[in-house]
Amino acid sequence: MQYVNAFWVGGLICAIAQVLIDKTKLTPARILVLFVVTGTVLGGLGLYDPLVRFAGAGASIPIVGFGNVLAQGVIKGVQEHGILGILTGGAEAAAGGITASIVFGFLAALIFKPKVKS
């Protein structure tokens, strides 16, 4: 059942993004920021963790989950380091995912020949 819940929750998040792209004048970049901010606010209020426990990767992998990771990192950083944790907590919590994306992006650039869009 975990796979089914992950599938439909992740699909619902993606469907909401697609509806926003199709039915509004929001650019993909603004939708991305909206989703990250939504995840951060919901994570900061403690409302996103129950969804992650229910849907697993369906809620933690989309970009909304990245906002949640930032919020949880800041909360933990403030608890451990005080006011300085506001600046360091989010970066510390998301460092693994950010590093992986940089490394895999670099490896893909080495393997594949980039083409200019025309």
From TrEMBL:
Keyword Membrane in annotation: yes
Ranges in a coiled coil: none
A Pfam family the protein falls into: SpoVAC_SpoVAEB
Sorted UniProt keywords: Membrane, Transmembrane, Transmembrane helix
Annotated organism of origin: Ructibacterium gallinarum
Residues spanning the membrane: 6-22, 29-48, 54-71, 83-112
Superkingdom assignment: Bacteria
Name of protein: Stage V sporulation protein AE
